[in-house]
Amino acid sequence: MPKIEILRPTDLTDAQIQTWRAIQLNTPTYHSPYYSPEYIQTLYTFLPQTEIAHISDGSQHAFFPYHRQPDGHAMPPGICISDYQGPVQPLDFFYDPISILKAAEIRSIHFNHLPYTLIHLHPYIECPHPDLSPRICLTQGIEPYIAHLKSTSSLIENIERKTRKIQREVGTFTFTFDNLDADSLTRTLQLKSAQYKATQKEDIFAPHLPFTAIMRQLHATRTPTFQGVLSTLYIHDRLIAAHFGMIYHHTYHIWFPTYDPEFEKYSPGLILLHQILLAFPSQRLTILDFGKGHDSYKLRFMNDAVPLAHGYIEPTTPRKIRRRFSQVTRRILSPLKPYLQPLLNRNRPKK
Question: What is the reported pTM?
Fold first, then answer.
């Protein structure tokens, strides 16, 4: 039976970190910065509820990060900001995930960005239809990709036209792929915060939350295979578009894109994305991962996708039964909604 130990990220030994990195490098499922020990250790600095279950049978190892909640349940590491989740392990290493709950003295582990390749966790998936994380795969080079886009849509043509238009009407822009300036990061997060407020979404960069500090720490992190990356587009001294994300090995992960709304008519975000892609060959990058979502720009650029699942690792309990019953009921009734709604409206009391 595998042995399980619950660790703080700072408790990892050099040997354990080397094992973790070797698994990540040798398993394409984990070619994402969210699976890097540097990312988890940064989270722990500002979210001390971050823990790691280390599972080992002596020859194989698994590292399962999670965020312990006060109610005894566990969320994904980073709570709401991790676009990939789940254990880092050889895909043929099987163990009882419920044993993690017992060792950690937690009641459940929630996930909502779990790759479908982690087949030993399939019994805990609660949605039969996967979500998708759109990607751009450039393993064949950027030229064939751009040529294909140009032959099948007007996307690149429109971006190039708006690029010429903004430089003609506003000024020549300066693109920086990896901007190390702390003030540029501050301005980027301010723009993103304003965007959240304008669209009535929760502002994760509000002063009382730890996520701004996490981004600053990641921005300053550099290892041979992992780094935070700030890509910017300036005209004169004005930041018109920016993106903060992370890089692992050959993968650039889109995380927090934003732009100055005054320049919206020029689509500065798309211009920036185009410039980032054009820089891929010189940066030796081959994958751009947009993260889960169906935003129109993701769907127009994508040529690949990773299927993701959500669910809970937990024993069979009344809570789990109620949730499963609710999900099954919704799936059954959803196709009938157009027919049931008129009946419900007819029987609704009149005011």
Answer: 0.89
